[in-house]
Structures are given as structure tokens and as C-alpha cells.
Automatic annotation (TrEMBL), chain A:
It is found in: Cell membrane; Membrane. This is Zinc ABC transporter permease AztB. Its main location: membrane. It comes from the Bacteria. The gene is aztB. It comes from Mesorhizobium marinum. It is a multi-pass membrane protein.
Automatic annotation (TrEMBL), chain B:
Residues 115-126 have a biased composition (Basic and acidic residues). Residues 115-136 are annotated as: Disordered. The keyword Metal-binding applies. Keywords: Metal-binding, Signal, Transport. InterPro entries: AdhesinB (IPR006129), AztC-like (IPR047701), Bact_metal-bind_prot9 (IPR050492), Lipoprotein_PsaA-like (IPR006128), ZnuA-like (IPR006127). Belongs to the bacterial solute-binding protein 9 family. Gene3D superfamilies: Nitrogenase molybdenum iron protein domain. Its main location: other. Residues 1-23 form the signal peptide. The keyword Cell inner membrane does not apply. This is Zinc ABC transporter substrate-binding protein AztC. The gene is aztC. NCBIfam families: AztC (NF040870). It is found in: Cell envelope.
């Protein structure tokens, strides 16, 4: 039963492994599809920006309530929503592009956060305290991730068609419906919710990584949005399992192990996906010779 | 420079400004709260003390402010731990342009190598943070080393302020006696704990010296720095230790994220024995506002949790 020992036993024996698995799978369920839409909208770097953007909110929560996770997370959510909405509004209603306005807003937000933290004169690293690790998921964190996954999937199902139209051809959607702008903001709200919830429960690297890498890998295999989401989800889930087992057997830090597993899938996809480098090249050659 | 001109200079300063010099306190900068407390005990009211990383602050990840550079620029003596504990320090000293001597208090103490004893299958990724040193910097966790710190502080103060030297030496001696008593007290308290129950768990490896000096074994999911991330294998190993009844208490620290320890605690049913003060003192109204209080509090918390379980 070597296979059992290697693949199943760690999850049976240890409660923290079950929780880590449940938490990371739930996060994949919601953030992988969101990642696909982010990627299609060319906003793949939003996650990293958001990790800095939530600092002032977390700092205000810390100033008012001390080192309590809930006020700091709520503060982070508010800051994240303000930054995402502000950036979205500026890119919608002015000449500024989405990436530039996001960069401007997150830098302002980050500076404000550093300022607030310094005012208190505290040298506790707030982000270090706020960001969780996948090995330390308590019931509260699991419930948080589960509700985020529920809200996200429900919203995606309701706005599915509008989201696709909005991602692929926003001008078209605006011309046929007044839903365009509201859908964009609903989507930004989902992004913030997934990221901030993910930071608090699992850490920055894991929540940003699980959002973007599976989506980026899936793009080499599928061309339609639906299959792409399902595939991203499957890649995300497989990376979680593989990463946790790697962390268990090879004594590696868990967050990086999971993300590197997804990274391996991504590299493999670049080379051998039907839309990847090699196959595309082969087909190209055939066209030429034919 | 020869001794003579320097002596002459000193004489002239004393004769010219004897009274103001005595009234002007020695400006001392201490890198973090524990050193600040030791310096206050040696210097008494002859020094004006500035402590950079305050109570409950984490010197591993501290970002200095301009006020810190100003204090350091004006300082007569700068007291630091050394051994790469204060990662921010080197740049701050350079930026402040201070001419004051920077005194490493761990010099001359009995230092432990950075090997993490008693850690099964331990492969913490230590790359990418401040703790690249060969030695474990948390030396103050042994009272014996604190005596070395105190001696070094008195030497540094004497060198900077010869007029107050007698007073510094007297203070250091009085405080040293208190430290000796503290050392005996800790040893007595640990002696009351059965040998087989002397393994406990904390969140990061800050207690190597306590372990070495007083014969307890500390295990931790995080490495020597608070910045490293734990692996599933480390956490599983700790849980096995507890379940095999080879670890008898578990503690959180005042400067680190508690959730990993809480998770281990809830999975094994081993109740968290309290908060240990490792790298920083508590605020004035906390349980560990001074070094001696901190060591007493840690010892009491540890022995209480083990004997109570």
C-alpha cells in the first residue's frame, strides 16, 4: 500500500492537512474562474497590486482594535474595494488605461498605509500578522473561504453571459445593454473579495498564485471560456494536492510548494498544450509546406 | 593619536565645563527593548536613553524612521545586540553618520552556533532574511549572557563618560547581583520539572540559549527568524511529538502570528500554556516590562503549564 502511504495517509492522519486541503480546494473553486476572467481582461497583475493596496485598511483596523483579525480583514476589504472601484471608474470614464490607474491607486493606498502604521510607531509587521498560512486554517478561516466560494460561484453563474461579453468585447456590451459598467464593478468586487479573503486565510503568494497560474496554464489548452474555467479549476485543485503532499514529504514550505506545482503545469502547458509553443509551431510548419 | 594630547583635551574639557558636563546626561541609543532595560539599570539617571524597537516590536523586520537616525546621529554610545539580530542596523548607522562607538553587547559572551538542536528532519529555508549569521543571536535568553551584556554596557559607558564610571560600575555590580539571584531562581524552578516533561513548543526558535543553559528542549515550526514559512512536514513532526507524549506544553510568543500554534493546539488537544516573551519586552502595564520580569514570567509560565498539565 505504498500509494496509500504516500498519497492518502497524510490527509487521514493529520487534521491540519485535511483543513489545508479543504481550504485550498475551496479557494481554487472560486478564484480560478475569477483568474480566467482577470487574464482575459488583461488584468493579471491586479492581485499583486491588491496585496499592497489593502494596507491602509488593515492598518486602520489595527489602530482601532489592535491585533484582531476580523477588523483588519474588514478594513482590508474596504481599502481593496475603494482602490479597485476607483481604478475601475477612472479607466471607465477617463482616458487613463486600466493598468495605469490601478498602479496609481495602489501606490497611493500603499503610501497611506505605511504612513498610518508609522504614526502608531509600531514595528509589528502588519502584513505578516494579517496574512495567514495554509497550515493554520481554523474554523473561522474555513467558513470565510467557503462563503467567499459560494458568493463567487453564484455571482459568476448569474452574470456569466454579461461577464464574457464584457471581457471579450466591452464596447459591444455597452452598445447592446446598460449592464456593462455595473457588471465590471461586480466583477472587481469579486476579485477583491477573493484576494482579501485569500490573503487572510492562506497568505498573499497562495491566493494570488492560485488565481493566476491555473488560468494562465488553461489558456494553452482551451479556447472557449467555459472549458477554460473548468480546466483552470482542475489544474488549481491538482496543484493544491500535489503541493501539500510535496510539503509533507519533502519538508518544503507549503505555500511555495503549491504555487510551484501550478508553475510546473504552466511550463508544461507552454510546451505541449494544443495552443502552446511546440504544437502551434508544428501546425504552422504544416501550413507552410502544404 | 597618542594618549597625551587626548588626556590634555579631556582635562581642558573638564576644567572648562566641569559643571555643565556633569549635568548633561550621556546620550545612549539602544537597539531594542531588552537592551534598553539593561542600559537603564546600568546608567541610572546619568543617561538619556532612546530605544529604537519598542515593547512588543519585532526587531527582525523593523523599518527605521528618520527620528531613529536623528537619535543615532546625536548619540554618544550606541548599544546593539549584534550577530545579525538587528537587520536594519548597518544601514541606519551609515545613514545617520554617527561618530559614536557602536557596541555589540554579545562580544565576549558564550555564543551558540546556529545549528537547531533537537529538531527532527529540520530543513527550514533560511535564505532571504536577516539571519545569515553563524551564531544564534537570541543570547539574552541565558541570564549568564545578560551578565556579559551588563559588563559590556558598563565598559562602554565608562569609556564615553569617565566622570560617571564609578557610578556605572556600582550600578552594574548591584544589577549583576540581581541577575545572579534570577539565574538561581530559574535553575531552581526548572529543577522542579521532571526530566521527561522538559520538551515544549513555541512558535519560532528564539530560546536556544534558554535550552542550553537551563536544560529544557524547545521545538518550533518556524525557524530562527519570524519570517520563514513552516512546512507541512515540520508541523506534522511537532504533532507527532505531542501525541507521543514527548512534548508537554505549547506556547505563543508576543511578537508572532499565533494561528499556527493555535492550530497545533486544537489538533492535539494540548492547551496553549500562555504567552512567552522572546524578542521584546511587554509594555509597562504588561507582565514583562523589564528583563528580570520577562525571564521570571517566562519561567513561571513554562513551569506552570508543564506541571499543571
Amino acid at each position: 500500500m505504498i500509494i496509500y502511504d504516500y498519497l492518502i495517509a497524510p490527509f487521514v492522519e493529520f487534521g491540519f492537512m485535511q483543513r489545508a486541503l479543504a481550504g485550498s480546494l475551496l479557494l481554487s473553486l472560486s478564484s480560478c474562474p475569477v483568474g480566467v476572467f482577470l487574464m482575459l481582461r488583461r488584468m493579471s497583475l491586479t492581485g499583486d497590486a491588491m496585496a499592497h493596496a489593502i494596507l491602509p485598511g488593515a492598518a486602520v483596523g489595527f489602530l482601532l482594535y489592535g491585533l484582531e483579525i476580523v477588523p483588519m480583514t474588514v478594513g482590508g476589504l474596504v481599502a481593496g474595494v475603494v482602490v479597485a472601484m476607483g481604478a475601475g471608474a477612472v479607466s471607465r470614464f477617463t482616458v487613463q488605461k486600466e493598468d495605469a490607474s490601478m498602479a496609481a491607486f495602489y501606490l497611493i493606498s500603499l503610501a497611506l498605509g505605511v504612513l498610518i502604521v508609522s504614526l502608531r510607531g509600531s514595528s509589528v509587521d502588519l502584513m505578516h500578522v494579517l496574512f495567514g498560512t495554509v497550515l493554520a486554517l481554523n474554523d473561522e478561516a474555513l467558513r470565510l473561504i467557503a462563503s467567499i466560494a459560494g458568493i463567487t460561484l453564484l455571482t459568476l453563474a448569474v452574470f456569466w453571459r454579461a461577464l464574457i461579453a464584457e471581457c471579450l468585447d466591452p464596447l459591444f456590451l455597452r452598445s447592446v445593454s446598460r449592464l456593462g459598467t455595473p457588471v465590471h464593478f461586480v466583477f472587481l468586487g469579486l476579485v477583491v473579495l477573493n484576494l482579501v479573503g485569500g490573503f487572510q486565510a492562506l497568505g498573499t503568494l497562495l491566493s494570488v498564485g492560485l488565481m493566476m497560474l491555473p488560468a494562465a496554464a488553461a489558456r494553452f489548452w482551451a479556447s472557449r471560456v467555459g472549458p477554460m474555467c473548468v480546466l483552470a479549476l482542475a489544474i488549481g485543485a491538482a496543484s493544491c494536492v500535489a503541493g501539500l503532499l510535496l510539503s509533507y514529504h519533502a519538508s518544503l514550505p507549503s505555500g511555495p510548494a503549491i504555487i510551484l506545482s501550478a508553475g510546473v503545469v504552466y511550463l508544461f502547458s507552454i510546451l505541449s498544450g494544443p495552443r502552446g509553443a511546440l504544437r502551434a509551431r508544428v501546425r504552422h510548419h504544416r501550413h507552410r509546406t502544404a | 593619536m597618542t594618549v597625551l594630547p587626548r588626556l590634555a583635551l579631556a582635562m581642558s574639557v573638564i576644567t572648562l565645563s566641569a559643571l555643565p558636563a556633569a549635568a548633561e546626561p550621556l546620550k545612549v541609543v539602544a537597539s531594542f527593548s531588552i537592551i534598553g532595560d539593561l542600559a537603564r539599570n546600568v546608567g541610572g539617571d546619568r543617561i538619556a536613553l532612546t530605544t529604537l524597537v519598542g515593547p512588543d516590536g519585532d526587531a527582525h523586520v523593523y523599518e527605521p524612521r528618520p527620528a531613529d537616525a536623528v537619535a543615532m546621529g546625536k548619540a554618544d554610545v550606541v548599544l546593539v545586540n549584534g550577530l545579525h539580530f538587528e537587520g536594519f542596523l548597518k544601514r541606519l548607522v551609515e545613514a545617520s553618520g554617527t561618530t559614536a562607538p557602536v557596541v555589540e553587547l554579545t562580544k565576549g559572551g558564550e555564543m551558540l552556533k546556529n545549528a537547531e538542536e533537537g529538531h527532527e528532519g529540520d530543513n527550514h529555508a533560511h535564505e532571504g532574511h536577516h539571519h545569515h549569521g553563524e551564531f544564534d543571536p537570541h543570547a539574552w535568553q541565558s541570564v549568564h549572557n545578560a551578565e556579559v551584556y551588563v559588563k559590556n554596557i558598563a565598559d562602554a559607558f565608562c569609556a564615553a563618560d569617565t566622570a560617571g564610571c564609578a557610578s556605572y560600575r556600582a550600578n552594574a555590580e548591584a544589577y549583576g547581583a540581581k541577575l545572579k539571584a534570577l539565574d538561581a531562581e530559574i535553575k531552581a524552578a526548572i529543577a522542579g520539572i521532571p526530566e521527561e516533561k522538559r520538551t515544549i513548543i513555541t512558535s519560532h526558535d528564539a530560546f536556544g540559549y534558554f535550552q542550553h543553559e537551563y536544560g529544557l528542549t524547545f521545538l518550533a515550526p518556524e525557524g530562527v527568524s519570524t519570517e520563514a514559512e513552516a512546512s507541512a512536514a515540520d508541523v506534522a513532526a511537532l504533532i507527532k511529538q505531542i501525541k507521543g507524549d514527548r512534548a508537554s506544553a505549547i506556547f505563543v510568543e508576543n511578537i508572532t502570528n499565533q494561528r499556527l500554534i493555535e492550530q497545533i493546539s486544537s489538533e492535539t488537544g494540548l492547551k496553549i500554556g500562555g504567552t512567552l516573551y522572546s524578542d521584546a519586552l511587554s509594555g509597562a502595564d504588561g507582565p514583562a516590562p523589564t528583563y528580570i520580569d520577562m525571564m521570571k514570567f517566562n519561567t513561571k509560565t513554562i513551569s506552570g503549564a508543564i506541571l499543571g498539565s
